[in-house]
Amino acid sequence: MASYHLGIIERFDPKTLEYEEYTPEKYGCIAVTDDALEPALLQLGQLPTFWHTGARPAVGFAITGITLLPPGSVPAFRRALENAGDPALRAAIDKAREAGRQQKYMILYGL
Fold first, then answer.
1. What is the pTM of this model?
2. Torsion 99-63-92-6 (CA) sign
3. Which of 16, 104, 108, 110 is the most buried (most CB within 10 A)?
4. What tens digit of pLDDT does each residue of 51-64 get?
């Protein structure tokens, strides 16, 4: 089963390449299963994001890659998680709420 790791980037640097490396512990990532997250991802196909670095603006999620969510996209992401209605997403909702409150970027590793 595929999974995702979701965390908060404390100091976002759009020019760094460090986001291309898989370092979930650096961002305090939590694991979410593909089954739980899939309905929310499908809702967010038009959400402004970045793929792998801050220099690659994109739309939607890099399902098997690295997605960076800018602060302006975090509230819609949180709402989609809430609308999915899966109790397994509670920690992810809390993480998105925290990022939104702090106006931080989020990172989503698709594995």
1. 0.92
2. negative
3. 108
4. 999 999 999 988 88
